[in-house]
Amino acid sequence: MFRENWQRFAVISTLYLATLLIVFQFNIPIFRAINGFYSELFQYPMLFLTALADGILVFMVGTLLFEKDNERYIKFIFSLLLTAVIVNTIKHFFPSQRPPQFFAGQDLFIIGDTFSERSFPSGHSAAIMVLARFFTFRQPLYIAIPILLVCILAALSRAYVGVHFPIDILVGGGIGFFLGDFIFRSGDKYRISNSPRFFRIQTLITYPLAILAGIYFIISESKGYEPIDLMLNTLVLLLALYFVVRFVRMIRAK
Question: Stretch 189-207: mean pLDDT, rounded?
Fold first, then answer.
């Protein structure tokens, strides 16, 4: 089993590094190709996908998916937090221009929020790939592949809406995916309790955090497009209400 996992990891890593080299060489042309594919037909779907990669939504969706599996959930949260720390540390020490600043005065399709700095790496791509790794693990291919493709499309949408270069997306996604994979597989050595008592303590902490995250998202997040804002706010509100109900039930349980 260990040898099989190592071989699989080696193949994936090799493919990733090869892709990284290609994207590094053709970063600008690839960005132009993705961003230049603009169409009103894809405008709203891409805005919705790019919002799904927001760290707050990833946290809330992960809480919904993994809440009943203590080990997977704790490692998911740890991976998400560690990924955020690594990504933002790189952003701080290696500041880079966003496409709107880099292409100032040139034609560029920008949908939604406009940013000018701290482009490398993409935090949205990192967050969504953490979720992708944890969600697709041990899933049948007919489930894992579509989910992975949606997550990859959400990451690529960051170039489509004009806020990240392909190299930002690839490095951010790689950090999230490989870090999540490493932490998840550490379960063979470090086991986390799945006892009802531990689950109760965990949910009494994470449910309020998920509720507060939802409130913050609804208050602060806006893409400037009312249909998308309405859809996202409705989704987040439903998730927050679910966590409220679960939290109340947990409090009342003996």
Answer: 69
Does 64 fall in a domain? no
How many domains does the chain contain in total?
Answer: 1
Is 245 a residue whose pLDDT tops 60? yes
* Angle made by CA atoms 28, 34, 40, in degrees to the nearest 5: 140
Q: What is the pLDDT of residue 191?
A: 58
Q: Which two tokens stand for residue 192?
A: 């986390």
Burial letters for 41-73: b for 16+ Cβ neighbours within 10 Å, e otherwise? eebeebbbbbbbbbbbbbbbbbbeebbeebbbb
Q: Which residue segment(s) compose the domain that 161 sits in?
A: 2-54+71-194
Quote the pLDDT of residue 2.
47
Query: In 10 A of CB 141, how many CB atoms?
Result: 9
Cα dihedral across residues 239, 47, 174, 81: positive or negative? negative
- Does the structure show a pLDDT above 60 at 4? no
Residue 206 lies inside a defined structural domain of this protein? no
Could you tell me how far CA 187 lies from the centroid of its own chain?
A: 22
Query: Token pair for residue 157?
Result: 């949408």
The whole-number pLDDT of residue 207 equals 87
Angle subtended at Cα 60 by Cα 55 and Cα 66, rounded to the nearest 5 degrees: 115
**What secondary structure does DSSP assign to 6-51, as a single string?**
HHHHHHHHHHHHHHHHHHHHTHHHHHHHHHTT--HHHHHHHHHHHH
Q: Among residues of the chain, what percentage have pLDDT more than 70?
A: 87
